[in-house]
Amino acid sequence: MFKQLKILDQSQVHEVKAIAGSAQFVDGKISNPHSKVKNNLQLHDLDAYNKTSKILHDALMSNPEFTDFAFPEKIAPPLITRYQPGMHYGLHADSAIIPLPDGPIRSDISCTIFLSGPNDSKGGALHVTQGEAGMRFKGLPGTAIVYPSHTLHEVEPISEGERIVAITFIQSRIRDVMKRNLMYELNEVAALEGLNMRDENYTRMQALQYNLMRMWME
Question: Could you say which DSSP state residue 112 is in?
């Protein structure tokens, strides 16, 4: 259900941060005015947004690990957000429908791309809950964590420094998270071990892959 990926190289991280560094940020509630748990800043400069979202979108779509795992159909333009001391984003699940200028998308998968490093702030971990347990993520610059949008998660309070990330949402060709993960695992096994199989068994496995895709993909 979770995947950590290397999305950006260092030059791309520097480019994105340089563009955002001279751009305007505003209260993050501008995109969710009724939220009682959101306390951050988000990029509010159309030119900077268009430039950075294209770099981030292209990086995601050119990453085979991401496309193999997410089966992306549509991706919301990634948006850069900042957290400074005292800021946080309380426990929440992401909205099921993300309104966009070109039409809404369904959020099956959420993605956080880290632009600042784990030591650039105290606090600020992405905490994703799993029942009574949970996982915390503070990735290296250029890495991303991809996880189901329905999970409850939060950004823990910042006490020092600054957290800079980009966030986006993905509508997957396979809506159901269990089916999506089964398809990913089957494809991985086929890619890793398929050539070691007898031809007739490899053909049968390919037929299984194709038929499951026919059943599950939208």
Answer: E
Contacts for 33 with CB less than 8 Å, ≥ 6 apart: none
Reply yes or no on whether the pLDDT at 1 is more than 90: no
Query: Which region holds residue 62: left if phi is over 0, alpha if psi is between -120 and 50, else beta?
Result: alpha
Longest alpha-carbon distance in the chain: 61
pTM above 0.85, yes or no: yes
Name which of 73, 46, 57 is nearest 111 in CA terms: 57
Q: Which amino acid is located at 193 in the chain?
A: E
Give the whole-angstrom CA distance, residue 191 versus residue 208. 14
CA distance 57 to 40: 22
User: What CA–CA distance (Å, rounded) separates 39 from 46?
Assistant: 21
Structure tokens at 17: 């941060």
> Euclidean distance between the first and final Cα of the chain, in Å?
19
Exposure of 43 in the CB half-sphere (CA atoms within 13 A): 26
Q: Residue 91 corresponds to which tokens in the numbers above?
A: 């426990």
Question: How far is 210 from 194, CA to CA, in rounded Å?
Answer: 15
H/E element, 50: helix 46-61
Of the candidates 117, 144, 98, 186, the residue with the CA atom closest to the CA atom of residue 2: 144
Q: What per-residue confidence (pLDDT) applies to 31?
A: 87
Give the residues across from 43 on adjacent strands: 25
